[in-house]
């Protein structure tokens, strides 16, 4: 008998029939003797629908009010599942995030979980009930409803698993595990049996939307064994766990990409100490997150400074840079919001040279121009024109033979 936290994503509870399927699955686990805490997302499309409604009435809805609205999607799903279970004669209670006291900070729309009071959950489990918790939400110290950012139900599940010291946290979704890359882009992508926290963290932060990055951070910090599985088919899925030094490592475990990038450049700024902070300071003050940064020095004592931002922040970043350009007497501000970032990830890269050159040659052979490059110990990222995304990812997937099981 184990304590298992299971999370079902939007498509997994996307219709009445799907909710009935989830209920049947839960009954099976329950009959095997397991204690179950279930986290649900909103029914598929619901969070987007609510967001569209809000934007029709207010261009920039207040974070607090948006959270009151968006949190309702998950509330609908948990109540429906609980009723379905009752119909089948299975005891269950549903709770919103604030009812189980998922305490967060007060950063609306992007809140962080600080603490979970699990007394109510334990009481229900002892009474033989399945506990169903609304994902993606909590409340701050003043009782305001907060949400955790898109994909946040993954984080609710892992945080609950950590707080309850669950034996495993299972993320049920519409794919049967973590693949070498998004199978929607590369049909030959291969499911991985296992991946390390570190690699999954890189994959998630570099754009693989299969898990919210914070859920992987939590799982790694509290060493929660995390498994991604299909809600539709049977199978062992992918286990995400700490690095096992005895296991042979694949050179590259996967390719991630991020379609939401934009780059901005300020040309001809005077090249002297303090320039980078004068350029990036106002960007940080506007709460715009920066990803890659490149500075090129010219021959005439001026420099060109380029960085990437989220596409939603593109016009804001351009406006700020235009002000900075006037102040610094820079030559020009240019930008491009039709770029994409493709990254190779793998802990095996640590001990291997030559990955970058193979990556660059593969892209060159496809006549794909690389605009920016950045590397770390276990990843190499390039920025390319978004029209080459599919071509680039497929070519790299083939070049590194990721469709074949191959260890070094
Ligand atoms: P849910 O609604 O269950 O949370 P998501 O849409 O958030 O599901 O995540 C599942 C999707 O993630 C898949 O349908 C797939 O297209 C996408 N995805 C991106 N990268 C990967 C990857 N490396 N492996 C598997 N799926 C991936
Ligand atoms: N419903 C939220 C979203 O669509 C949270 C989640 O599904 O994880 O982002
Ligand atoms: Mg998701």
List keywords for this structure.
single chain; 408 residues; alpha/beta; Carbamate kinase; VC0802-like; 2 domains; 8-stranded mixed beta sheet; 6-stranded antiparallel beta sheet; 11 helices; 18 strands; globular; binds adenosine-5'-diphosphate; binds aspartic acid; binds magnesium ion
Task: Describe the fold and architecture.
- With 408 residues, the chain is α/β, with parallel strands linked by helices.
- It has two domains: 3-174, Carbamate kinase; 255-399, 2-Layer Sandwich (VC0802-like).
- The chain is built from eleven helices and 18 strands.
- The protein has helices spanning 16-31, 46-57, 63-87, 119-126, 153-164, 197-205, 213-221, 275-285, 314-328, 355-365, 389-399; strands spanning 3-8, 35-40, 92-95, 102-104, 113-116, 130-134, 137-139, 145-147, 168-173, 194-196, 226-230, 238-241, 254-270, 290-297, 302-310, 332-345, 372-376, 379-385.
- The protein has an eight-stranded mixed β-sheet with strand order 3-6-2-1-9-11-12-10, with helices on both faces. A six-stranded antiparallel β-sheet has the order 14-15-13-16-18-17.
- A hairpin with a 2-residue loop joins strand 17 (372-376) and strand 18.
- The radius of gyration is 23 Å and the shape is globular.
- The two termini are 38 Å apart.
- Residues 9-12, 41, 151, 173-175, 178-179, 181-184, 208-210, 254 line the site of adenosine-5'-diphosphate (ADP).
- Aspartic acid (ASP) is lined by residues 9-10, 41-42, 47, 73, 135-136, 150-154.
